[in-house]
């Protein structure tokens, strides 16, 4: 042991600044053998992790390539609880703070999972914003909100970061009820400029004097709402700052399965041209000289000359924003704290600016090499090991519904060359990257533009193609008028595949697909169906492909399949439209489920078997058109009919009871009860917790049965029994 | 560009290079010389080049050796074939270093040996880093034998781009300031201008 102590010096000198590992070989003598082995073990680990840096010692944590599985040392960040504590720091200290913040974000996300890449890209921007502006008086809005992890750390929530995206923990997006520093709730994109303009105008009306800053990404900039907001901002001319965070990542991921692809849309190439534009400096100097000469009393003329010169030499791109009425500044290096602080300070101190757009160029995943190199830039990750970047993905027996959908669609498209797929910047999330790989010319990514996607699909359907629009259930809310007016009213055969239906877990109420049954089933021409397992999903994709005279839609949840046998060749067989099926024959009580709620019904009936009750369980398959025969037979031969769905009021259950009432079936002896999502938003958490909060677990269903039958004691028993 | 490499000097420190006859391509020790680009890069290089030629008048042989070694690729400098592992590169470097180090070189050929040593060290730095080595191999295959390492060149490009950006937004900021003077002049009838005038009018009354 004593010998090994002397081999330390060369290593120790390289690993300076590493806090507890600092030890001189002399002092280590006195500590005894146990500590030697402790130190040597720790330093050996460091040796593995230290990258070779030929240019000497690098003081910053992430540059050294050391990623700690223990909490990284963050001396400066430990002194910052709120942005006000940053006000006395120097620029050098701000840079150190940024590095520590980066290490902290990596450490926190590695323990909880979440959105990593986007947060890493805006570390310096967050630090600069909170340094220059005085939140919460100054309003700082973050579009989408998934990049706000550093913002949350700096605004008093660092101690809760380990609860990120968990039940009763921090939300993964900004949330007004969580903190006064979160000005506006986000989750869907492209809303920050609109909200920011609202806050700016509200401030003007109230006579206040704070600043309003809205941070929006280049992906979110592809949505129409951003232009609607900029157009209005230019017209109203209210003082506000829009920060365009440009990292060339427009879709999720901005890559195929085989590698990166250029971002979709013409805007991205315009922004790139802005970055590479080499200004004709001499011409600029000339223009300045001319205006100086004209200057003096002739303000307006000088301004006109300047504007003309500016338009002439600054090229394309900035004129887009200028024409909308926003003053363009940039491009700016988004990872340089000096530059950011200087610019923000200048703009803040300028008395009247009108709307200003600062074009900041960042890199998603910056500072964590594994994220920088990954195709998806580690946008959303599960828990991972910081030192190796490997995610701890639990291996499930079955794949996700998303993957099954993609495979089903590929199988349909093999047979029918008119099948095309459309998505809105969600190639990974909808599984259509798989479709893209197989059929590169038949998959369309329109950017974050759901409204356009739906009408685009309608146009395709006019030409005889078979478009499948894969849009998340909650994002479909954006495109509702297009669904009604452009698709349903004209009875165009567009197929809607709504992923993430029902409760979605960690993403919370912003991404929860509770309303799609309600708003789709009330449309006169729409066929509405939902699979109860993955095999049914394959069949329903085939059914949708076969329905060619009217629009149709189907919904499936987040999560994995239950493990039933898949149809051969992944090719489903079209179902008979408007026909459900009975899974278990029983008596007295019938459970009529819609979608994956059928699985909960089956579990509930298994629970009740042990109590001597044999229920009937039926899978409705279609909400529109309903299987009238099935419902009539269930109502006539049972005492109780319970409809179960993972959707809001006004959906499947409402359609069933409407039919029951009109058919005279409610005038008899049957009792009908609905089980739907409650009339409130269910916060983020684990799927099991959410389901329990919603009251849709098998235990809840069984308890409802008992309650109706009058066996309240058994109902309580089953609810308190922890299965 | 070979020319611009000579331009990487801080203008004030030219005198430094006159006392020694080693060439001013001092980017071998990058952490000692900050990479500041003077705005008039071309002037600096011309001046120094002229002075170098004067000073080097008497040491023609030195410059000849220098020129020669400039043409050699990193692999030739280390005396190794192109497909070698890191271990062999390290060994070759150590050998070369021991041979060409100023302290052990024969006294009459100090300058050229030092020159060589500096180049050998640069070669080792580039080739021992797998990323840099890959870039260098690619350049080599395209026929470019640069005394620069590829990464530094790209860094310099990045730096140039960034400083251009800086100039651009600085002028944009000053323009913004100028515009804000006239923003709420009487002619501006936008909603916010009216609100601002009202607000300022009120505060003035107070």
From TrEMBL, chain A:
Superkingdom, natural source: Eukaryota
Protein name as it appears in the record: 1-deoxy-D-xylulose-5-phosphate synthase
Organism: Citrus sinensis (Sweet orange)
Biological classification of the source: Eukaryota, Viridiplantae, Streptophyta, Embryophyta, Tracheophyta
Automatic annotation (TrEMBL), chain B:
InterPro entries xref list: DnaJ_C/III_chloroplastic (IPR053232), DnaJ_domain (IPR001623), DnaJ_domain_CS (IPR018253), J_dom_sf (IPR036869)
Domain J: 73-140
CDD domains assigned: DnaJ (cd06257)
Region (Disordered) location: 187-206
Pfam family for this entry, one: DnaJ
Protein name from the UniProt record: J domain-containing protein
Source organism of this protein record: Citrus sinensis (Sweet orange)
């Amino acid at each position: 042991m004593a010998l090994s102590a002397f081999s330390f010096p060369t290593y120790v000198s390289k690993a300076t600044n590493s806090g507890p590992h600092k030890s001189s070989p002399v002092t280590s003598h006195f500590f005894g053998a146990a500590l030697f082995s402790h130190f040597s073990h720790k330093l050996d680990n460091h040796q593995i992790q230290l990258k070779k840096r030929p240019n000497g010692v690098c003081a910053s944590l992430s540059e050294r390539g050391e990623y700690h599985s223990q909490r990284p040392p963050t001396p400066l960040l430990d002194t910052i609880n709120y942005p006000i504590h940053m006000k006395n720091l120097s620029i050098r200290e701000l840079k150190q703070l940024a590095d520590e913040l980066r290490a902290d974000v990596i450490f926190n996300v590695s323990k909880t999972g979440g959105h990593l890449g986007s947060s890493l890209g805006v570390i310096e921007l967050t630090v600069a914003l909170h340094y220059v502006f005085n939140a919460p008086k100054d309003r700082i809005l973050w579009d989408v909100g998934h990049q706000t992890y550093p913002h949350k750390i700096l605004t008093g929530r660092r101690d809760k970061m380990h609860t990120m995206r968990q039940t009763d923990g921090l939300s993964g997006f900004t949330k007004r009820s969580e903190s006064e520093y979160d000005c506006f709730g986000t989750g869907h994109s492209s809303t920050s400029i609109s909200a920011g303009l609202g806050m700016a105008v509200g401030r003007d009306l109230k006579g206040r004097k704070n600043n309003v800053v809205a941070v929006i990404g280049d992906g979110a900039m592809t949505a129409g709402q951003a232009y609607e907001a900029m157009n209005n901002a230019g017209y109203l001319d209210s003082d506000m700052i829009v920060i365009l965070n440009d990292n060339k990542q427009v879709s999720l991921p901005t890559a195929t399965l085989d590698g990166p692809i250029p971002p979709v849309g013409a805007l991205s190439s315009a922004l790139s041209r802005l970055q590479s534009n080499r200004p004709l400096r001499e011409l600029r100097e000339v223009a300045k000289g001319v205006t100086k000469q004209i200057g003096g009393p002739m303000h307006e003329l000088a301004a006109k000359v300047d504007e003309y010169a500016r338009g002439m030499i600054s090229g394309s791109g900035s004129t887009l924003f200028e024409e909308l009425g926003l003053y363009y500044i940039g491009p700016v290096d988004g990872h340089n704290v000096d530059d950011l602080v200087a610019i923000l300070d200048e703009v803040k101190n300028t008395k009247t600016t009108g709307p200003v757009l600062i074009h900041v160029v960042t890199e998603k995943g910056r500072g964590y090499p594994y994220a920088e190199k990954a195709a998806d830039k580690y946008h959303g990750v599960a828990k991972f090991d910081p030192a190796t970047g490997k995610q701890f993905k639990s291996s499930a027996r079955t794949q996700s519904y998303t993957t099954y959908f993609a495979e089903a669609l590929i199988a349909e498209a093999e047979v029918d060359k008119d099948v095309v797929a459309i998505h809105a910047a969600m190639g990974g999330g909808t599984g259509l990257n798989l479709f893209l790989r197989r059929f590169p010319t038949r998959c369309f990514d329109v950017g974050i533009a759901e409204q356009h996607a739906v009408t685009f699909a309608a146009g395709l359907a006019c030409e005889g193609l078979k478009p499948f629009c894969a849009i998340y259930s909650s994002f479909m809310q954006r495109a509702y008028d297009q669904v009604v007016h452009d698709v349903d009213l004209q009875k165009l055969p567009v197929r809607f595949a709504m992923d993430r239906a029902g409760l979605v877990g960690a993403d919370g109420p912003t991404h929860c697909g509770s309303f799609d049954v309600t708003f789709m089933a009330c449309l006169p021409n729409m066929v509405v169906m939902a699979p109860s397992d993955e095999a049914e999903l394959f069949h329903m994709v085939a059914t949708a492909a076969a329905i060619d005279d009217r629009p149709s839609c189907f919904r499936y949840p987040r999560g994995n399949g239950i493990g039933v046998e898949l149809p051969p060749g992944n090719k489903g067989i079209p179902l008979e439209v408007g026909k459900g099926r009975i899974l278990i024959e029983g008596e007295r009580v019938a459970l009529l489920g819609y979608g994956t709620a059928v699985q909960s019904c089956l579990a509930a009936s298994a629970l009740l078997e042990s109590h001597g009750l044999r229920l009937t369980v039926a899978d409705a398959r279609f909400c529109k058109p309903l299987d009238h025969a099935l419902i009539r037979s269930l109502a006539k031969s049972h005492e109780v009919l319970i409809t179960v769905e993972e959707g809001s009021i006004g959906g499947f259950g409402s359609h069933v009871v409407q039919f029951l009432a009109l058919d005279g079936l409610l005038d008899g002896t049957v009792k009908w009860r609905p089980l739907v999502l409650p009339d409130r938003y269910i916060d983020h958490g684990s799927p099991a917790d959410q389901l329990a909060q919603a009251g849709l677990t098998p235990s809840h269903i069984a308890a409802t049965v008992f309650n109706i039958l009058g066996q309240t004691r058994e109902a309580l028993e089953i609810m308190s029994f922890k299965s | 560009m070979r020319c611009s490499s000579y331009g990487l000097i801080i203008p004030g420190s030219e005198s430094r290079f006159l006392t020694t006859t080693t060439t001013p391509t001092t980017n071998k020790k990058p952490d000692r010389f900050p990479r500041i680009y003077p705005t008039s890069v071309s002037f600096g290089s011309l001046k120094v080049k002229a002075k170098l030629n004067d000073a080097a008048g008497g040491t023609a042989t030195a410059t000849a050796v220098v020129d020669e070694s400039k043409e050699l690729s990193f692999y030739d400098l280390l005396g190794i074939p192109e497909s070698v592992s890191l271990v062999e590169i390290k060994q070759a470097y150590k050998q070369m270093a021991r041979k060409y180090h100023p302290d052990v070189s024969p006294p009459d050929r100090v300058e050229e040996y030092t020159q060589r040593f500096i180049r050998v060290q640069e070669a080792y730095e580039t080739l021992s880093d797998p990323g840099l080595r890959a870039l260098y191999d690619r350049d080599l295959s395209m026929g470019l034998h640069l005394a620069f390492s590829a990464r530094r060149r790209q860094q310099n490009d990045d730096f140039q781009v960034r400083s251009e950006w800086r100039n651009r937004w600085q002028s944009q900021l000053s323009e913004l300031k100028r515009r804000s003077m006239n923003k709420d002049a009487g002619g501006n009838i936008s909603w916010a201008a009216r609100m601002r005038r009202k607000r300022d009018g009120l505060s003035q009354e107070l």
